[in-house]
Amino acid sequence: MIKSPCVISIKQTDAAILNMLWDDGHLSPFTLRHLRDDCPCAECKGETVLLHTFHPSPQTEKPGRYVLKSIVPVGNYAIQITWGDGHETGLYAWDYLREICPCDECFQRRN
């Protein structure tokens, strides 16, 4: 089995950027806006359960939407972020974070 990369450190470099360092040496410079707008929870992305599709809630500009309150590890596979608007249901799995990595190398690979 091939082991997926995992995040080994997260550092907020300024008010708007989180740098995530991976165990394979890769660096992902996420903006808070990118992470919040790409929240993977069912409320933000929608989901299908038993052939019924629930559509995502409209994204509104609530105060604190892009303010980072806390980051908590979830097992050895994800983080949970609490945002300034109270939203906290998204679990950002390592695979998902790597998939949406905004660095030039990953961006070029996706496009």
Strand content: 35-45%
Q: Please give the radius of gyration in angstroms.
A: 15 Å
Question: What's the pLDDT, averaged over the residues?
Answer: 89
Largest sheet: 3 strands, antiparallel
* Residues in helices, as a percent range: 10-25%
Number of domains: 1
List the total number of helices. 4
Q: In oligomeric terms, what are we looking at?
A: single chain
Low-confidence stretches: none
- For the record, the CATH class is Alpha Beta
What's the order of the H and E elements?
A: EEEHHEEEEEHH
Number of strands: 8
Shape: globular
Any overview of this molecule?
With 111 residues, this protein is an alpha+beta fold. The chain has a single domain (32-110), classed as NE0471 N-terminal domain-like (2-Layer Sandwich). It has four helices and eight strands. The protein has helices at residues 32-37, 42-45, 94-99, 104-110; strands at residues 7-14, 17-22, 27-31, 47-49, 52-54, 68-74, 78-83, 91-93. Strand 4 (47-49) and strand 5 (52-54) form a beta hairpin. The longest helix is centred in the last third of the chain and has 7 residues, at 104-110. The two termini are 28 Å apart.
Briefly characterize the structure.
The protein is built from four helices and eight strands, in the order E-E-E-H-H-E-E-E-E-E-H-H. By secondary structure, it is α+β, with helices and mostly antiparallel strands. It is globular.
